[in-house]
Amino acid sequence: MSALTVTLSRQLVLEVPVQAPDGAGGYARNWQALGTLWAEVTALSGRERDGGDVSMATARFRITVRGASVASSKRPAPGQRFRDGPRVFTIQSVSERDALGRYLQCLAVEEVVT
Fold it and tell me: What is the C-alpha to C-alpha distance for residues 54 and 20, in angstroms, rounded to an integer?
């Protein structure tokens, strides 16, 4: 069994979506910070889509953080996101990265208008 080497060297803010009244009878989605997690961010793939006047670049990342129980607010979940300054990584899935659950692997997407 080989040792898993993980370098948690980036601080990311874990955010959860919250609904707030938009003043017109509906709701707007805002984001609330749950806390800061140390992470390892690894780029996996990327592509660019041409939309005429606006193009969109999409990149997929594996973001590794320390393990947390399913009931913990420090455990990321699909639909939440990580923020690194102006960069936003939308979480698509979360699973244990190692058999002991010491680390969680989050597959996330970053979209940027180009």
Answer: 29
Query: Residues 77, 94, 67, 64: is their CA dihedral positive or negative?
Result: negative
> Do the Cβ atoms of 45 and 14 come closer than 8 Å?
no
Which DSSP letter does residue 33 get?
E
Judge contact between 72 and 35, C-beta under 8 A.
no
| pTM of structure | 0.86
The CATH class, in words, for 10-113 is mainly beta
Token pair in block for residue 33: 């910070």
Contact 38, 9 (CB under 8 A): yes
> Would you give per-residue pLDDT tens digits along the chain (114 residues)?
456 789 999 999 999 999 988 888 888 889 999 999 999 999 999 888 877 777 889 999 999 999 998 888 889 999 999 999 999 999 999 999 988 889 999 999 998 887
